[in-house]
Specification:
With 667 residues, the protein is α+β, with helices and mostly antiparallel strands. The chain is 58% helix and 13% strand.
Length: 667
């Protein structure tokens, strides 16, 4: 059960209820002041105790900050009124008014530094409270003693008596509203009642009518035990009971402080006794409260760590090496027991490493350096794991082995899944490769079969073209011849795509040829197609450009690039063709003004049978093998074909080949 201190409860009340509590405390202080003043009425007597001081300080601490000066003034006026009712001289009454105001003001200022709420839960708080109470009581005693001396009294006696009576009241009453009980454990009620009765019994024995020896110390051990075992609030209540009972018996003429003959009167000795007990019990109770709170925090942290230790997905084991290398398991978790597979057991609330097991042998043979171990060392049936043994030495525990175990079962499962996936992908890849081989074989076979009839068609078309004189028939023959040539080219490209599988293909039959002438011849061969689409060619061919290549294959590369430019150029468009040497390279650039090729398609147009989405949607004829054949042939010659965006937004195809330093071969 947790409860805040009384002062906090008062300050959180609604304003009207808070004001009611403050008024009740002021009234209680006036009643107590009147009662204790009237007990020792007269011009000079000093009351043996002044509980009104504690009530007035509690009222000022409970009030809202803006009303504190008003509360101090009212408390001072009530105290002065009580003194006047007891027959004190006007000077002493005035001094009590000023002194009470100074006393309460010092208490409020000392217990609320920088406006912080007053509390009494740590040793520092107790130290500040005791010093503040001493200063407040001294301020009042100085003012009242000075006034008493001016009226003909004894300054020293009045200072000591007044200061002691007020100091004991402050130390015994104010803590009851300041003690922080929010983190204190409450003892059983019967324990508190029994202890209170025992304290009262010892006080009665020490201060009762049958006490013939100075036994005032008799209740002190029990009060100290109360401060150690009870909450601070209960302990201070028990101290207040003990002091009140001792005071009553002393005033009745019993106990060691009655009828003393010494430097201090009975009332002063009684208050000094009360002050000593109050300070002692406050310090003990505060130290115990701090210790208990620290223990609670450490226990909570330890429980949290153990819970995290137990819930961890990693195995942990902490073992202590005793004499003769005996092992004692201090902590372990279920994951460690699972991974060690029967070599670590939990029985009778404790963990232990079983005898004659590989794990015990490994831990017993561990040296001074950290070592890692595989689960294979634990036996054939071990769970896949890896564990590390780290030896450390602690003065309070000796040699400790910290064992961390990593469960490798998920890793092994992932490895198996990856192996299965790789095998599956390997089978798929092999199947696709086999399918490609079959496809290439089919295309090559069909292309070979088609060459014979196409060759016959081309041959007879040429014969007809030479023999036919009728203009209409000649036009028909030209159409047959032209389309037969196109079909022959398509079949040739298909066969080439099916047979080119290695970079070395195409290097046979090479010689030094003029690239510029090849470009010019290709333009002449495609003249009829250029005229058919009304395309204009801007040619800038600078020769000679010697390169080592197969002349037919080089012509096929240039023809393919020109054919693509023609197919994708709009009618009445322009095709720019440049060729020439640049440094150590021979360069051919063919740029059209067509729709261009997207970056995504540029990365794939050299794949066999791939056609861009733009070409398919525009209905541009083609098989998707021309560029792949051209790139393969260019690569075999040590060159490459690059596609980029042209200046006019079309496609710029660039053929780059190594420039030869050898002379041109004769045709």
């Amino acid at each position: 059960m947790t409860r805040p201190n009384l002062l906090f409860q008062i300050t959180t009340l609604p304003p009207w209820r808070r004001s009611t509590v403050v008024a009740a405390l002021l009234l209680l202080g006036f009643v107590l002041a009147s009662a204790f003043a009237l007990v020792q009425a007269g011009e000079q007597p000093t009351s043996w105790w002044w509980p009104a001081a504690g009530a007035g300080a509690a009222a000022a601490l409970s009030a809202a900050p803006r009303y504190v000066p008003l509360v101090i003034l009212v408390a001072s006026l009530l105290t002065a009124t009580a003194s006047a009712l007891a027959g004190r001289p006007p000077l002493v009454v005035t001094a009590s008014l000023v002194g009470t105001a100074a006393e309460i003001a010092v208490m409020v200022a000392g217990l609320t530094p920088k406006g912080a709420p007053p509390r009494l839960s740590t040793t520092r708080d107790v130290g500040r409270f005791v010093l503040t109470s001493l200063a407040a009581a001294a301020a009042l005693a100085l003012i009242v003693a000075g006034a008493a001396a001016a009226a003909g009294g004894d300054f020293i006696a009045r200072f000591v008596g007044t200061g002691a009576s007020h100091l004991s009241a402050l130390l015994l009453i104010v803590p009851l509203v300041l003690i922080d009980r929010s983190s204190q454990r409450v003892a059983p009620w019967w324990h508190s009642v029994t202890l209170t009765a025992a304290i009262a019994l010892l006080v009665a024995v020490a201060f009762g009518p049958f006490a013939s020896a100075p036994l005032s110390f008799l209740p002190v051990p029990l009060l100290a035990w109360a401060a150690f075992s009870q909450t601070m609030f209960v302990a201070m209540g028990q101290v207040l009971v003990a002091v009140s009972l001792a005071s009553g018996l002393t005033l009745a003429g019993f106990g060691p402080f009655a009828n003393t003959e010494g430097l201090l009167p009975t009332s002063t000795l009684l208050q000094v006794y009360a002050v000593a007990i109050a300070i002692t019990c406050l310090v003990i109770a505060t130290q115990r409260a701090e210790r208990r709170e620290l223990d609670d925090r450490q226990d909570a942290l330890l429980r949290l760590l153990r819970d995290a230790f137990a819930r961890s997905r990693t195995g942990f084991l902490v073992a202590q090496v005793r004499e003769s290398r005996r092992l004692r398991v201090l902590e372990a978790n279920d994951v460690a027991a699972e991974l060690f597979n029967g070599q670590l057991a939990h029985a009778d609330g404790a963990w232990r490493v079983l005898d004659d097991t590989p794990l015990r042998r490994i831990l017993s043979e561990t040296g001074d350096e950290e070592r890692s171990h595989e689960s294979d060392e634990l036996g054939e049936d071990a769970v896949p794991a890896r564990f590390w043994v780290d030896p450390i030495t602690r003065p309070e525990l000796g040699r400790i082995l910290l064992v961390t175990i990593e469960d490798l079962r998920p890793v092994r499962a992932v490895e198996r899944a990856m192996t299965t996936q790789l095998d599956r992908e390997r089978h798929v890849s092999e199947a696709l490769r086999e399918l490609n081989h079959k496809q290439d074989a089919f295309v090559a076979s069909v292309s070979h079969e088609l060459r014979t009839p196409i060759t016959a068609i081309v041959g007879y078309a040429e014969e007809l073209e030479d023999s036919v004189t009728d203009p209409d028939q000649k036009a028909y023959v030209e159409v047959i011849s032209r389309n037969a040539d196109r079909l022959a080219t398509l079949v040739s490209n298909s066969l080439r795509a099916a047979t080119i599988t290695q970079p070395s293909v195409g290097v046979h039959g090479t010689r030094i040829v003029d690239l510029a002438r090849i470009v010019t011849d290709s333009l002449d061969d495609l003249r009829y197609r250029l005229d058919e689409r009304c395309l204009r060619v801007e040619s800038d061919v600078q020769g000679p450009v010697p390169v080592r290549a197969n002349e037919a294959e080089l012509g096929q590369i240039v023809t393919n690039l020109l054919t693509n430019a023609i197919k994708f150029s709009p009618e009445q468009g322009v095709i720019r063709v440049t060729a020439g040497p640049i440094g150590h390279a021979a360069l051919v650039e063919i740029e059209d003004h067509g729709p261009g090729i997207s970056e995504q398609d540029r990365a794939r147009v050299f794949e066999r049978f791939y056609r861009s989405a733009q070409a398919v949607s525009d209905g541009v004829p083609g098989s998707g093998i021309g560029l792949s054949v051209a790139q393969a042939l260019a690569g075999a010659m040590g060159g490459a074909i690059l596609l980029s965006e042209g200046e006019a937004g079309g496609t710029l195809a660039t053929l780059r080949l190594p420039l030869s330093e050898e002379p041109l071969s004769e045709r």
